[in-house]
Amino acid sequence: MQTRDDIFNTLRDALVELFELDPARVSLDSNLYQDLEIDSIDAVDLIDHIKRQTGKKIAAEEFKSVRTVSDVVEAVYRLVQPAA
Q1: What is the C-alpha to C-alpha distance for residues 56 and 76, in angstroms, rounded to an integer?
Q2: Residues in a beta bridge with 69
Q3: What integer pLDDT is reported at residue 62 of this predicted model?
Q4: Axis crossing angle, helix 69-80 with helix 4-19, rounded to the nearest 10
Q5: What pairs with residue 25 in β-bridges?
Q6: Whole-prediction pTM
Q7: How high is the pLDDT of residue 42?
Q8: Which residues contact 69 (CB under 8 A, 6 or more apart)?
Q9: Which residues constitute the domain of residue 9?
Q10: What is the CATH number of the domain that holds 27?
Q11: Looking at the 3D structure of the chain, how many domains does it have?
Q12: pLDDT of 23-77, one tens digit each?
């Protein structure tokens, strides 16, 4: 089972690798669009990367409400939790 910290670390590494960001810029409070300058095409790339890592796809509808790195961590956390 992945913790939120594990997910954040993996996500930070992905953001650094995919978008050549400085790791120091990526925090839970970072706004994807304003702070990290992720655009809609980048967001699709990020969703695809998450799918490859988890084997599960985040619904585009759910990703529309995502604004911060923390929001992405929560979405992935919900995705990877086994159904109760």
Answers
A1: 9
A2: none
A3: 80
A4: 120
A5: none
A6: 0.89
A7: 93
A8: 8, 11, 12, 15, 26, 27, 28, 29, 30, 32, 36
A9: 4-80
A10: 1.10.1200.10
A11: 1
A12: 999 999 999 999 999 998 998 899 999 999 889 888 877 888 899 999 999 999 9
